[in-house]
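tool=predict chain=A
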Amino acid sequence: MTVSQPVSYSGWQSETTGFMGRLSGPGFGMVAAAALIATLPFNVGWQSAFLCLPLSLFLLALAFGQVMGLSADEWISLAVRHQISVATRRNLFFSGAFAPRSAATGRQPMDLPGTLARLRILDAPDGLGGQLGVVHDPAAGTYSAIARITFPGLALVDTDQQAARVAAWAAFLRTYCTEDSPLTRIAVHQRCLPDDGAALAGWTARHISADAPDAAVTVLSELMDSAGPAATARETYLTVTLSASRARLAVKGAGGGQTGAAAVLVRELHAMGQALSTASLQVVEWLSPRMVAQTVRTAYDPDAQQMLAARKAGAELPGWAGTAPGLDPDLAGPAAAETGWGVYRHDGAWSVSYQVRTWPQSEVYATVLQPLLRPRQNARRSLTMLYEPIGPRRARQELARDKAKRSSARHLRAKTGRDESEDERREEAVARAQDAARAAGQGVVRMTAVLTVTVTDFDEMETACAELQADAAASGLEVRRMWGAQDTGFATGALPLGQGLPDRRMGF
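tool=predict ok
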């Protein structure tokens, strides 16, 4: 009997975002200014060296120095921007009773903080007689649909099935690496949160027979009290984002405007059904507007999870009869939020978000990310993985630009007498292999991930963060706390709205 060897994966390539080598545009300007200032004493007199040389060294320190994983100029830019936000109180958000009411309807509209304020939850027919919640971003011109999905997992299957499922997911992503694909982003979001046991207790109470022995009822009640709250619930969502600009002809043909865009998005969702099944992903439901609102609300207010679970468990009771599942979209946002330098406070919870900056450098197995979502009783975790399929023409241009940057950096190192490090040789080899795979017909996908840890007791925050960083290290990931951008990190990492992956990567 032949036993298959586990398939390993590697070759993730970091984007080169430097203007020259690893220097940003401002950093390159600082180096040039430092070189110019250093030559001034030769022209204006040696007395000026006491001023020019310290200033030149200061500019070089800003260009090449590192603060909390960021270049010094990036860190200063973020710090100044954050302090201006604090001084003008733009880091504070108040909704609920403080939200302005609409003059037309007299109701308080959906009110979300920060970068999410522009979003709108639209109601569109799903083509099967139900309603689909479409998240519309008018600034980006995108329309997103969210599905709650289940999957069989990888840990308890043999290596052949693991490899087949990973290959099927890769084939699903490669399907959209075309020039005419209207889908601009695909996001996978998973939450791991403590389960209070309310749903389990409610179901048990409704199904206990009237003539059940008292001893059995007592034992069952004690079991529910102890084991129920110790359970862990996992929720997995798939978010598909359509670009109205890419699909403008199809949108125009479907009636134009928001109605046409929603129709094109629904058509794409139906078309991908077979591909999702091939990847062993089962769509439980495409979320309605009320379910989208519930998903957003429970991320901002963990206590709402218990209330909604209890209401769902008691849906058959007279008090809840006729109540639609989910939550009114007008109530999706938090009552209050505050963005700190390293912590985001929202309603009765605190969150810290991390961006995955470096993927494993060595070869890893398909189960590499399992440690990130281990059950934790003191905190809830969420992970969002964002994929942006790139068309062949743009992929060729991006890889050619990346190759040119690496070649320029290599020539610069040779001229300055620096030896090429083994890391730099490896990165160049990976880049060549990636370009060869693209030329052979493989797809190129931009990918990033954001992790968010949320606690309801601030004293548990540092412990929860330390545990998350330890689990990330066990997975071979290098994560960085999103200093000065925790509200943006929460919107990406804790919510399945498909936010993230800007056109140009920013430093956090």
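Residues 174 and 443 are 5 Å apart (CA to CA). The chain is about 40% helix and 20% strand.
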